[in-house]
Amino acid sequence: MIHSDPSLQQLDRYTPNDLIKSFGMSSSQALCFLQDFQSIKPFELCQQFQKERITPIPFHHPHYPQLLKTIYDPPYILYAKGRTELLKDKKTLSVVGTRHPSAESGKIMKNVLDPIIEQGWTIISGMAMGVDGMAHQLSLAGKTIAVLGSGLYHPYPLQHRQLFQRLCDTQLVISEYPPSARPERWRFPERNRIISGMALGTLVIEAKEKSGSLITADQALDQGRDVFAIPGSILRENSGGTNRLIQQGAKLVCDWHDIIDELSWTQDE
Asked: I need a labelling partner for 174 at 20 to 30 A (CA). Which of 38, 48, 166, 167 fits?
């Protein structure tokens, strides 16, 4: 549809037969599409977005992240709240990890991320409990982007309401879901492709062998991005996933140089 009508000026002229013949829709899909489209009130929607300081960033928008355009299934639109210019940053690193970090994880993250943040890198994460939230908190002094698994009207988790507000005021929060979309279990692994897709590389801090963080790492590998992991004791469950990633070829991180040296090389390419 976008290929045949890039500016989408014909949308309000399509009949059910047009949709069936031109775009391979079934009759029920065509009717559902038209009902949805005709229920939208663009002027009211724009007013609402302006009031809430929400900026829709469609695929052809100049601020749409260039790296995200290169993945297999980029979202057609992003809903953004905050400093949309951060979407143009080229020095980007995704940081993910367990929702239940160890006592020493804070020291590890500060040791590794502080120098990276000071050098102007933008940290991308999912605003989840644990490592994600800690990554955003550390990055408030620099630049950070949160990618939600829900709409902007329903930030999740509730414990991060205050963090969400700070990110909207001083950083950037985005979602591929309409602002009214509520959190759904399936949306969180789906949004992980955006967390990895917007960054040159993904750093996994602590993760169990079966966790959402490893889904993000797998997405990063599928997208041709670098994956970094911080090793840990074989006696700790939260180290199982990161140690396994290293065994499978992820780059072992001893200090921040291991990340920057690799990603700076990738940038030059």
From this structure: 38
Query: In angstroms, what is the C-alpha Rg of the chain?
Result: 20
What's the CA gap between 120 and 91, in Å, rounded? Answer: 7
Task: Indicate the pairing of strand 92-96 with strand 122-125.
Answer: parallel
Q: Rounded CA gap, 252 and 167, in Å?
A: 30
Q: Token match 């990633």: residue?
A: 245
Q: Give the DSSP H or E segment for 202.
A: strand 201-204
Q: Which residues of the chain have pLDDT under 50?
A: none
- Single-letter amino acid, residue 193: R
CA gap 135, 151 in Å, rounded:
21
d(CA 243, CA 71): 26
State how beta strands 77-82 and 55-58 pair. Answer: antiparallel
Contact by Cβ (8 Å): 219, 193: yes
Rounded percentage of the chain residues whose pLDDT exceeds 70: 98
Q: Would you state the torsion angle of the CA atoms of residues 266, 248, 224, 119, taken in this order, to the nearest 10 degrees?
A: -40
| DSSP β-bridge partners for residue 122 | 92, 143
* Both tokens assigned to 8: 């989408």
* Integer Cα distance of 181 and 143 in angstroms: 26
Q: 101 with 238: CB under 8 angstroms?
A: yes
The kind and range of the H/E element at 96 are strand 92-96
d(CA 198, CA 210): 23
Token pair recorded at residue 261: 């040296």
Cβ distance 216 to 240 under 8 Å?
no
